[in-house]
Amino acid sequence: MNAPQNSLTTPVLPPELITRLQQAVGEARVHLDSDTLKTWGKDWTKHFEPNPSVVVFPANTLEVQAVVKLANEFGIAITPSGGRTGLSAGAVAANGEIVVSLDRMNKVIDFLPADRMVRIQAGVVTEQLQQFAEEQGLYYPVDFASAGSSQIGGNIGTNAGGIKVIKYGMTRQWVLGMTVVTGKGDILRLNKGMIKNATGYDLRHLMIGAEGTLGIVCEVDIKLERQPQDLRVLVLGVPEFAAVMHILQAFQNRLDLTAFEFFNELAIQKVIAHTGIPRPFESACPFYVLLEFEGKFEAVVDDAMQTFEHCMEQGWVIDGVMSQNQSQAATLWRLREDISETIAAFTPYKNDISVLITHVPAFIADIDAIVTEFYPDFEICWFGHIGDGNLHLNILKPANLTKDEFFEKCKVVNKHVFETVQKYDGSISAEHGVGMTKKDYLHYTRDEVEIEYLREIKKVFDPKGIMNPGKIF
């Protein structure tokens, strides 16, 4: 476990700063009580103890700007806080920071039907945006298990992906513009929602994936899509991992997939025990594939069935089931989407890694050999968005180890895992960000020259280094 960099004694801020924060956002929106500090000072990670000095709740861009300017004036760091669902400690305030929560900035500002675009505040919850899109007869496709609590600003901070990336891409593909308060306290309106804008550097893309280290995203222009129709879900039992890639290629040759996920037998056992969901079919298999496609035409469904039969004939699939209605589809999806919530009780040590799809079979074999060698007695839960090369490796904590003992044992293998990631030119963080938990390993994905460029970019936007310090670098 990474040792906290503080004594857990909450810092005492200058009374003048507290007064001026209250003037900026309202007295009732500045919180110093221990419960609020603990709750809003952390995310879903358990590696660091939260220790902020104050939590403020601005309501608009101008109030955010006022807080950032005060932080610069008094030399106090800021940690932006969204839905706090992050898995890399990117939103953890461990060293007396001012936490700037976007919870109040949850309004839909405008909807432009002709542009299929909605302008929202960055504190809008992902599911709230999805519901708004549905009310307009449209669709926001970035989706994942934490959609009910994650916020759009946080999604932008890590360029969140999720379960639909194979068709719809990452968050980056859906951000047409944004308003951001930089670390200097300047307000920038970036791209202004335009699809075509060839006027130099597109700074919006620097903010996406920056984890709040360059500024605070306050408003966002989001592109929407037509709603998918008659979604069908197939769950297939697979005898060995190598077959997964054959199945992916076979289905992609004939269908436009909206999702292609995988998980292992341990994952399905944990979900079934936790939720009571029935097995999709009687056979227990080493691995499972869940794929989704639009079945609005009978010919498409016939293609899917023919491809399934072909995979069975090749020995790539042991058994399978296809949803016949939306209720069945939702139940099958739970086999995949309930994994994270289910294994949370086991204090999992998570790795969120990615490589080119071409390298996935060899990469998986190498990683599996590493964890088998170092952790022969640990339960390993594999799942991920295999259709885009993103794998989630979860090592589950045995009951006889404390959290600290467990994390220390898991850290031993990080070097080997990330050396393997580097071997295949992959990423140490596919969609969860770097935060504090992975910053020591950044060099496995970015070389030293590139990292120095990143540091220099930060200095331009945040010359005093007050914006989410200690994250990424």
From TrEMBL:
Q: Which UniProt keywords apply?
A: FAD, Flavoprotein, Metal-binding, Oxidoreductase, Zinc
Q: Which GO terms describe its molecular function?
A: (R)-2-hydroxyglutarate dehydrogenase activity; FAD binding; metal ion binding
Q: Which GO terms describe its biological process?
A: respiratory electron transport chain
The EC number of this protein is 1.1.99.39
- Any keyword Hydrolase? no
UniProt xrefs under Pfam families? FAD-oxidase_C, FAD_binding_4
Transmembrane ranges?
A: none
Q: Matching PANTHER family, A to Z?
A: D-2-HYDROXYGLUTARATE DEHYDROGENASE, MITOCHONDRIAL
Could you tell me what this protein is called? D-2-hydroxyglutarate dehydrogenase
